[in-house]
Amino acid sequence: MKTAKEKIAYLRGLLEGGNLSGKDSGDRVLWDHLLDILDDLAVAINALSANQDELGEYVEAIDSDLMELEEEVYGDADDDEDWVEVECPECGEPVTFEEGFLYDDDVQVTCPECGGVVHQGENFQDYDELFDYEDEDDEDEE
Q1: pLDDT tens for residues 57-89?
Q2: CA dist list (Å): 65 to 34, 37, 116, 136
Q3: For residue 77, what pLDDT is reported?
Q4: How many structural domains compose the chain?
Q5: Which domain holds residue 14?
Q6: Residue-wise DSSP of 76-109
Q7: For labeling, which of 15, 37, 101, 142 is most exposed (least CB within 10 Å)?
């Protein structure tokens, strides 16, 4: 595949060889200006391509550094031993939580999507159920 510069050089050769020149010298001036513009565009495209390549290398280096930093801060991403994923019985969405919650009798894990209970420890007490708020409202109405 020919580059833009090679194609422009070909057109310039045709113009100078007389194959593109018209009878009027105004045509020659027009073609000269068009080819000058095309030359400028080809130079700009080459500069953009070089900048794009340089930026691509820079982004790859940043991505690599970020991956190393994430591994250092968060540990190995493939280490799933400390996490449990279960399906919500209400909505079916997957819910992920720390494995330690399975062994905590005073905890309740709820689905972030629908609020359904995914796991509940044996000693968990729902404090909202301990207090009967409806009775207080009924007493105020009387």
Answers
A1: 999 999 999 999 988 888 765 555 688 888 998
A2: 46, 42, 40, 59
A3: 54
A4: 2
A5: 4-74
A6: -TT--TTEEEEE-TTT--EEEEEGGGGG-TT-EE
A7: 142
